[in-house]
Write a structure and sequence with these properties.
Layout: E1 2-7, E2 10-13, E3 18-26, E4 32-39, E5 46-52, E6 57-59, E7 67-72, E8 77-82, E9 91-100, E10 103-107, E11 111-116
Parallel strand pairs: 2-11
Antiparallel strand pairs: 1-3, 3-8, 4-5, 4-9, 5-6, 7-8, 9-10, 9-11
Length: about 120
């Protein structure tokens, strides 16, 4: 089992920045990918960004340039730096990990990000 604990959400004005962290603990198998998703009220959950334990990155096209994902593999922690935030970035941001052997998905409880105009 893997536990994911997010931190760093909060209220920020438009144009501001936030940094989210997600610490993973437990029986973490490689290879794996960690990432961030978000879900706004009334909308489907969407991928924000992912990073493998080998360092390969993937971003949602609409967020490239404003959001940066990084990972400290030794600490099993993934970060999401969010810059130039917009009110439409308001959502619950969820950390996720997928291991492949066996294929298992893990989710954190989420952290609220609210961007005021």
């Amino acid at each position: 089992q893997v536990q994911l604990v997010e931190s760093g959400g909060g209220l920020v004005q438009a144009g501001g920045s936030l940094r989210l962290s997600c610490a993973a603990s437990g029986s973490i198998l490689s290879p794996n990918v960690m990432g961030w998703y978000r879900q706004a009220p009334g909308k489907q959950r969407e991928l924000v960004a992912q990073i493998t334990d080998g360092g390969n990155l993937h971003y949602a096209d609409s967020l490239k340039g404003r959001f940066t994902i990084s990972r400290d593999t030794a600490k099993n922690t993934v970060y999401l730096q969010m810059n130039s935030l917009k009110p439409e970035d308001t959502a619950v941001y969820l950390c996720a990990m997928t291991t492949y052997f066996p294929r298992t998905d893990y989710w954190g409880q989420g952290t609220q990000v609210t961007v005021s105009s």
